[in-house]
Amino acid sequence: MAVERTLSIVKPDAVGRNQIGEIYRRFESAGLRIVAARMLHLSREQAEGFYAVHRERPFFEALVGFMTSGPVMVQVLEGEEAIRKNREIMGATNPAEAAAGTIRHDLAETIDANAVHGSDAPETARDEIAFFFRDDEIHSRG
Ligand code: RTP
Ligand code: MG
């Protein structure tokens, strides 16, 4: 199995509910290492750039509005099959459809405020990590 890196965001709703530690615990319990992390309040420009792939979607305005509504934690997770494993821990996009035991099922309320983001493929993981972190800010232990 390959050691991968993926970009994770604890979204404003979960930061607001004081759930950063609870979410980090779930990453670490699953064998994912936090190898870079930063708290920031995304500007509108940053949120639009990060979610550019969704520009034409009907939910784009709501997504950008929500992602700029408060501070977020962004982190790079590293581990065996980190991209797939993180998506598994997160659960389905809509918390109502997420499996029991996943972050979105257990902690989130709505599809808009769904607690976490995770890269969905190796190419997007590479681009999304580079969006937030320089190479020398990532402290790999793999
Ligand atoms: P994310 O990118 O945040 O990890 O979430 P995802 O891959 O599970 O979902 P994606 O399709 O990439 O959508 C990005 C975010 O947009 C919001 N969304 N709303 N109202 C809707 O139908 C709808 N669809 C997506 C969600 O907050 C989703 O996380
Ligand atoms: Mg996505």
From TrEMBL:
Gene Ontology MF: a single term: ATP binding
Cofactor(s) this protein cannot do without: Mg(2+)
Q: Which PROSITE patterns does UniProt cross-reference here?
A: NDPK, NDPK_LIKE
| CDD domains for the chain | NDPk_I
Question: Reaction catalysed?
Answer: a 2'-deoxyribonucleoside 5'-diphosphate + ATP = a 2'-deoxyribonucleoside 5'-triphosphate + ADP; a ribonucleoside 5'-diphosphate + ATP = a ribonucleoside 5'-triphosphate + ADP
Q: Which UniProt keywords apply?
A: ATP-binding, Cytoplasm, Kinase, Magnesium, Metal-binding, Nucleotide metabolism, Nucleotide-binding, Phosphoprotein, Transferase
In terms of one coarse class, where is the protein primarily found? cytoplasm
**Range of residues in the leader sequence:** none
| UniProt-listed Pfam families | NDK (PF00334)
Give the InterPro entries listed for this entry.
NDK-like_dom (IPR034907), NDK-like_dom_sf (IPR036850), Nucleoside_diP_kinase (IPR001564), Nucleoside_diP_kinase_AS (IPR023005)
Q: Name one GO biological process term.
A: GTP biosynthetic process
Q: Which Gene3D superfamilies match?
A: Nucleoside diphosphate kinase-like domain
According to its UniProt record, where is this protein located?
A: Cytoplasm
Where along the chain is the active site annotated?
Answer: H117
Mind telling me which residue stretches traverse the membrane in this protein? Answer: none
Q: Which amino acids does the record list as binding ATP?
A: K11, F59, R87, T93, R104, N114
Q: What is its EC number?
A: 2.7.4.6
What this chain does, per the entry, is described as: Major role in the synthesis of nucleoside triphosphates other than ATP. The ATP gamma phosphate is transferred to the NDP beta phosphate via a ping-pong mechanism, using a phosphorylated active-site intermediate.
What family does this chain come from, according to its entry?
Answer: Belongs to the NDK family.
Which HAMAP family does the UniProt record give? NDP_kinase
Q: How does it assemble?
A: Homotetramer.
Q: Which PANTHER family match?
A: NUCLEOSIDE DIPHOSPHATE KINASE
This chain's protein is named Nucleoside diphosphate kinase
Origin species: Sediminicurvatus halobius
GN (gene name): ndk
